[in-house]
Design brief:
single chain, alpha+beta, globular, binds protoporphyrin IX containing FE, two-stranded antiparallel ribbon
Length: 351
Amino acid sequence: MSRSPDKPVIEFDHLSARYAADPLSVYREMRSRCPVAWTDAHDGFWVTSTYADVFAASRDDHTFSSRNGVVIPSESGLHLLPIEVDPPELRAYRRAMNPAFNPRAVAKLVPEFERLAAWCIDISAALRSEIAERRLRPRDDFLSTLVQIDIEGRRLTDDEVTSILITTLGGGIDTTTALIANALVYLHHHPEHRGRLARDESFVTSFCEEMLRYYSPVQGFARTVTTDTDLGGCALRRGDRVFLSWAAANHDPLVFDRPEEIIPERFPNRHTSFGVGAHRCVGSTLARAEFGVVLREVLLRMPDYSLADGGVRYSNIGTANGWHRLPARFTPGRRVGAPAPGSIAHSEDAE
Ligand code: HEM
């Protein structure tokens, strides 16, 4: 680390193999020496490492804007809604989206998840025709909601609907699978928790929060400074980019007792894994429901699973802290004949 009075400089690259190997030690070191610091990686940006700074900057969307994108390096192309919009413009989008993700809406979806423990979605090819179809014949689904909503007196364009879907699906898939994969790895090493998780709903809740905190499926998102400001004792200039590290905040010893230990019953657990402030994850209830369903399905139907050789973590965890492959062994039980995605017929003959 080198230091000028208000600009400590560190070597930090959240996309590097070094970071992927041990992100917590990077933040531990930063917190003890320079909680906010500058790195020259990817054209230069600030990095935060304390809960207080991440919280303060995320809530001050006037100073720390999402408008120029929330990833480092910046990605050109589509302007992603609503994640790259600041309040007050953001509010109309969130008002329109929130009902589809509130606890009541999610509860209605849970039986569907239970039928389909795993499914996957191909969005690219079919998307435009699906949008056109819903404009003509709306159904009871999220896409129909999007084509019908009123944002300040007008309908969303096809590009806006596509942008929201890309953010929602992109934000919803890799994150939740990363969370589930890390939990399954943890339970491979700690089978003593499996029986209780299969039976005790409230234990699943605290376990889920601790998996979210410890593994921080999204390690951090970026903001752009709109006006000269001070964060953690550093002078940030207009136009600077800042990496708000949810992972660092989640391991801050000023907020969490024994932060680098996994404590499945941890309470309270005010982690930042779903973000903080106006952009806080719209899908958090859905993610928690998916986690609970998949965990229970696995623990009830494959209670003796163990991981086999050949697991491969993402070499770069800056976007999602997940796994490419996670082979496992288990004693096969009776098949329940879950129908394929989109089908309604029960396939008893699938065995
Ligand atoms: C474990 C799972 C998940 C994690 C860790 C996660 C994490 C996050 C975080 C940190 C943000 C804040 C972005 C920011 O401050 O710039 C966010 C926003 C968002 N998430 Fe999630 N997410 C998860 C699951 C989901 C799911 C299941 C969906 C929907 C299907 C979803 C859709 C979104 C959307 C649309 C936004 C943007 C909200 C806005 O900009 O106002 N996420 N998520």
